[in-house]
Amino acid sequence: MSSRKIATERNLEQLIDAQQAIFDDNVAIRVSHVSKVYQIYASPKDRLKQAILARISRVFGRTPKRYFREFAAVQAANFEIRKGEIVGIIGKNGSGKSTLLQIICGTLYPTSGCVEINGRVAALLELGSGFNPEFTGRENVYMNASILGLTEAEIDLKYDDIVAFADIGEFIDRPVKTYSSGMLVRLAFGVIAHVDADILVVDEALSVGDAFFVQKCMRFLRSFMKTGTILFVSHDTGAVLNLCNTAIWLQGGEVMAQGDAKQVTDCYLKTLYESLQGGSGEISPSPTQPSRVVATRDMRLDFLNQTNLRNDIELFEFSEQGTSFGKLGARISNAYISDRNHQPLSWVVGGEAAELHVECSVFESLRNPIVGFQVRDRLGQVIFGDNTYVALLGQTLHASAGNTIIVSFSFVMPVLPVGDYTVSLAIADGTQDEHVQQHWLNDAISFKSHSSSVSSGLMGIPMQEIHMVVR
């Protein structure tokens, strides 16, 4: 009996060691059942009463009366972030993003649960956190870098690079309390960029930087992505899509979704719209059967110049299978891309004239319908798009139930890098700033760029002329 117990204990130790090895090799951050609950008091005297009664109750073994209400900033959060992942955290103000990050970074203790960290963490949280306002920038660099684990000798070696990255000039020897918010971010980012961290945590910090510094930070983040793990918090879903392959959506302190960044941000944006204008209508197959595109031609046949650099883009049929939301007073019923003669296309060439046609079925009266589109790459980043509001400003285009709205957008097709793209479509009622979303349909049309002359950037703009002279 005892020998089996010993063997079992040994097996358990081996299992624990194996699990620890797996964690060490693959997981950077593990958050397990983490909650943070605050006690909210109506007045200072209630806090005093609670403290006195709690001590008396401990003496007599009683449960004290509560003079507070509880607020759960984070509720039972569970997730893992693997090494090398770039994870975005999204959610509205008050959703618990900053609280969760502070717990992960160790500046705040959870009420329950635990966080396991594998590696050195460098964090850029609240603006100016970790800085003493009375110290100079130079003194704060040494203090902050030492908190993050560097020795004074290591800081000496990196100091010039930190100052060059921050680029705040003579202010480096002035007290931090004289800095603007942008200068604070520059200095803080300069430090965390040079402490050789394994995990980088950035919380909304880049929103106060100027364009040039933000670009410098983004270049650093892209370089850091090759070897490290990044936890990136932003209200800008475009920035999350640009940087992150995974996203975590927080709402009311709870993890609502975790997974592919595009899918999670789509769900978040849908919920955000619904919170502003009410729930979406029931999305079901279109009640009408619009005419589908059948007669198509291959635009490539019009071009005699055959080259592997020509931007051949394969178009696919309209689909209602993408995620969608809205009040459904109207809905997108069909869409296709054509040439300027309105001939539907199966292929289009980047740099040539094209038209996007959108048909909408109206079920409820719309005072001022707006139809728009967004072309997105495989990460969900918006490449280009437009809507009818500005172009038709001042025109009265009331639509009644039973009407069909037909819109066409004429443009020159950009030259697109090789890859997959989708077109999201929407119809709303109102103005550019204040409107009710009737139907937003993601991934209504998909297309694939097979070859391209684009060497950099999200897309290429066809040049009218390129001229060079050697004298």
Describe the structure.
- The chain folds into 2 domains: 82-105 and 117-272, P-loop containing nucleotide triphosphate hydrolases (Rossmann fold); 281-449, abc- transporter (atp binding component) like domain (Coagulation Factor XIII, Chain A, domain 1, Distorted Sandwich).
- Helices cover 27% and strands 32% of the residues.
- It has 9 helices and 20 strands.
- The longest helix has 25 residues, at 2-26.
- It is α+β, with helices and mostly antiparallel strands and 471 residues long.
- The strands form 4 sheets. Strands 10, 11, 12, 14, 16, 17, 19 and 20 form an 8-stranded mixed sheet that branches. The protein has a 6-stranded mixed sheet with strand order 5-6-7-3-8-9, with helices on both faces.
- α4 (137-147) packs across α5, α4 crosses α6 (181-192) and α5 (152-166) packs across α6 (181-192).
What is the domain total for the residues?
2
How much of the sequence lies in strands comes to 25-35%
Shape: globular
The low-confidence parts are 1-12, 288-294
CATH superfamily of the largest domain: P-loop containing nucleotide triphosphate hydrolases
Helical segment tally? 9
CATH hierarchy: architecture of the largest domain: 3-Layer(aba) Sandwich
SSE pattern, N- to C-terminal: HEHEEHEEHHHEHEHEEHEEEEEEEEEEE
CATH topology of the largest domain: Rossmann fold
Q: C-alpha Rg, in Å?
A: 28 Å
Task: Give a brief outline of the structure.
With 471 residues, the chain is an alpha+beta fold. It has helices at residues 2-26, 44-60, 97-105, 137-147, 152-166, 181-192, 211-224, 237-243, 261-277, and strands at residues 27-41, 68-82, 86-90, 112-117, 121-124, 199-203, 229-233, 246-251, 254-260, 297-298, 312-315, 324-325, 330-338, 345-349, 353-362, 369-377, 382-387, 404-412, 419-430, 435-449. The termini are far apart.
